[in-house]
Amino acid sequence: MLRIAIYGKGGIGKSTTVSNLSAALAQRGLTIMQIGCDPKADSTLLLMHGQRIDSVLDTMRAHGDPALDDVVHKGHAGVLCVEAGGPTPGTGCAGRGIITAFEQLDELNAYGVYRPDVVLYDVLGDVVCGGFSLPLRGEHSDIVFVVTSGEMMAMYAASNIASAVERFKTRDYAQFGGLILNKRNVENEDEFVEQLARELNTEVVGTIPRSSDIHECEQRQCTVIEGAPDSTVAHAYETLVDAMLAKAAALGLGEVGSR
Amino acid sequence: MGGVALSRLSLFLPSFAADYSGVCSCLFDLDFLVVMNDAACCTRNYVDYDEPRWSREKVTTLCSQLRTLDVVMGDEAGTIAKIVDAARSTSPRGIAVLGSPVPAITGMDTSGMAKEVEVLTGIPSIGFATTGFATYEQGIDRACRGLLKKFCSSPANRPRACRPGEPCEGDGREQPASPAPRPRVNVLGITPLDFGTVGTEHDLTSWLQNEGFEVGACWCMGFSLEDVRQTPKADVNLVVSAGALKAATTAEALFGTPFVVGLPCAGKQAAYVAASLRQAATSGSSAYALVGSESEGAGGNAGTDGNVGAGPQRANESALIVGDWVCASSLRSALRLEGWPGKITVASLFGKRPVFAGAEDAAIACERQLVDLVRNGNFSSIIGDPLLGRIPGARASRHVRLAHPALSSNLFEAEMLRYLTTDVSKLL
Questions:
Q1: Tell me, what's the ipTM?
Q2: Which among A173, A206, B27, B314 is least surrounded, fewest beta carbons within 10 Å?
Q3: Range of the domain at B411
Q4: Is residue B301 part of a domain?
């Protein structure tokens, strides 16, 4: 089992990227679990064709002690979709929400029951507190990638996340896999992100071109892997999957297909 | 305030020993530096109320004395520095980093901190994500499994205990005709939080020796780190409290050691446990040495003499035993084997229903459920902690006082039951 955490600045396109990665991996015959770690609980919308699923936290609040079937929903290509959920905006503690949801998934033995080949965590924004660093911890993730564009704030967030991984190196946290460039077509974007990768002593593992196909598929509430499989951008996601798996293999991390 | 919140209110019972106290109790004998990440109150719960050995023996405990800004700013480095200083001055054999409610809320990474501490000190360190929201048996569980994973490795070609004259599994060697082999048994799950400090651990080890077993590690009273390391060498693990159930299954998965669940009580229950241990040691199959979980009274349960005042008038009686799942179920098993004919229900305030629970046994999530159970159950007798006498409706039943320190601390030490030296047939 390979566990991948995807971080990045809010609005950078993490959920779209992660959903397309999940779909691409699932279409290769692998069992994939995607866990959204955002109080908005909208990470898996494209895989669920627009249907909102009950989050772990909402289910816990409603039922106290939920069953695994209550919180794990099968989406496109059989991807196992989970939303951690979180408090109403402006209240509660979103970080603690992630911790509680992860504890519940452990309690329910989610990985033992579904035995996914790959788990993808789609984590909100920056590593702002202990709760949002949880997916980085070694007991949850093997490798972390950061989605960024060439925009300054996105790169700043990417740098912060890379710093957090570096800071916790002695704690056996997930290893830093590299940057994913989700292009916004800003000037000199490739050069900026390549420069950032060099400064962080890492690499750009893949580039997703800006494409109207993504927007059109989102309107149809599906991934481009499903809705536009022959598009350039779908091929880019496939290439990205290959690169991410190769990176994980090069680091000697959880072999895909091993259970 | 909504009804859900009020349903968790305790009006008659005190707060229970928390998970961090379970971890501390498990580690007490092992010369660990125990670090409580708290403002000081959880540390005081542990040393003042939950751990009776604290006042009698010297054990190193460090309270990190968290303050608001430490938590808000996530100052784990400051706490790590304190731990390293304390470790250098006390030279413990291990270090445990525990959480408490506030660090749990902010996501303090106790395991990560322990890894850093281990790198800095060279001393084996374990982090426990205790929260104070969970009860003690979950702490015992965390500690037992943490120790197993940290200090135990699977023994190569561990020979299975075998009968004289039979080839032993694993190495094909022939066992000499005499002397008879002594299966090695670890005891898992004995702490003062369930058994007090009245000597039950000594009763258990003496009983095992008298039954012809070699005693391995006695988790978690009267053992050392070396005993922990030798744990995989046992032929069978004996689980005497619910806190050790997962540790037993972990040991079975990691080392292939079968387990028997059941606390030996004086009389037939002890004989039943001993026979189950021998069977498990030779067969390699785990077992539950518990009878009587059926919903109706056994009455003529096979193999019982019916000498507990059994008679038609007693068959209509019913008893409720409230306590740790394994202890209470073992007591029921003992009463049943000794022939008590009435219906016996087990209830526990600690942990989920185990697989060996009977259909009418109850995992009590809050005091309100216990009140309802007592009111609606019409039990002729209630066996449980003296504080259960405060529960409305309990006075209608005969109360057999059996102290449970996780509930009542050391208030009733004199009313601890020594299961192996007490004639349980006289309880009801």
A1: 0.79
A2: B314
A3: 318-426
A4: no
